[in-house]
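Internal QA ticket QA-208
Title: Verify multi-chain structure generation after dependency bump
Assignee: T.L.

Test input:
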Amino acid sequence: MIMEGKSIKILSAKQISIQNPLSEEWMESPLSYSEDYVRAVDPDFKQFISAGDARRMGKLLKRALATSLSALQEGGIENPDAIITGTGFGSIENTELFLDALVREGEQLLKPTQFMQSTHNTASSLIGIHTHCHGYNSTYSQKGFSFDSALYDAWMQFRIGRIASALVGSHDEMSPVFSGFVRKAGHVGEGEICSEAAVSVLMAESGDNAYCTLEGVRLLDNPSDDTIRQILADMTAGGIDAVMTGMSGNSVNDSWYGFLDKMLPGVPQLRYKPLFGVNFSSSATGFYAAACCLKKGSVPSVLSVSGKTVSCGKGILLVNVVEGRHYSFVLLKPVCGR
Amino acid sequence: MEELILKLKQEIIEVLNLEDIKPEDIDNDAPLFGEGLGLDSIDALELIVLMEKNYGIKLQDPAKGKEIFKSINVMADYIQKNRTR
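Actual output:
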């Protein structure tokens, strides 16, 4: 079990998003969009889920299962000790159907399948049932901080020695109706693509061909500048190649990351939201992108704010700021000896 | 009766999301649960909702579903005798 000073290996990371699914093609030839609302590009789910099993699953569940099974397969672990999932709003399309029926049918004659899928923890439990992993299973629903919360739980479970492996993911879908609500509520701003994402990451104490290592996770609510400065000093003490931010091109959102210019001057800044869009699982796509960069040893220019390619030899610090007050700092490092 | 059986099959395919199955694939006498279509207890709940919503039949005793949902023929026969809409 992991102890103080040891690191956690990221054995695999998979995504279904507005980029080509279950693939790292985005690093060489990213898909670009002119629309402000884009749904995920789905793979052929039949390679992961039988028609019989799939008939009760909405898109979010299929995506969660496909990324999870794919991550487990690549990472070479069939039964992780923990399944920890983040989601902003769970299976929102089925929730809409259920609520519509509730109104239409006068709270009578409601479909059990829609009810089952309208709960936020359906994805995590489905993954557990499908993979026969009956250990620690938890779901975090904290809007755009959901993945960060799930990751922090996994980090702590490793640190206290309760688990040696974990499948950590974050999954969100965006229906046409819901995307309108999300924009009105200000969760997706001007110039940002409202999108969908499912990301699964397999992490363990040991394993071959890891993408990178997870060196630290810190979550803070309304931290002072001094606290942020101290955390950045601690987490970058060994040097980093770049900082992966949640900047998107939206002025309000990007202003939350202004402290990085002052506190990490000269450190190349990266951003994943123009590539993967904005949704409640966005920070998971940032984690996935950083892990892929560390595996490859370089950051493609499409992620770089300056437009220049960045080499990866020391590590990437991920910074996510939600609503200007929830902060997460995650440090990923290359695997030693690569 | 044949018209009702076809309609019932179409409704079951839709409500249970049986994507790869066509009405002609369902044997009128084959068991709906276990063998045959291989439906389960959640499907039984869906069928109870279907019967009430589409035919006005409210099953007071869900245990009776085991007999009523034995096959398409049995189900159609029950609907024809008990429907209110």
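Spot checks passed. Residues 213-333 of chain A form a domain with the Peroxisomal Thiolase; Chain A, domain 1 fold (CATH 3.40.47.10).
Status: verified.
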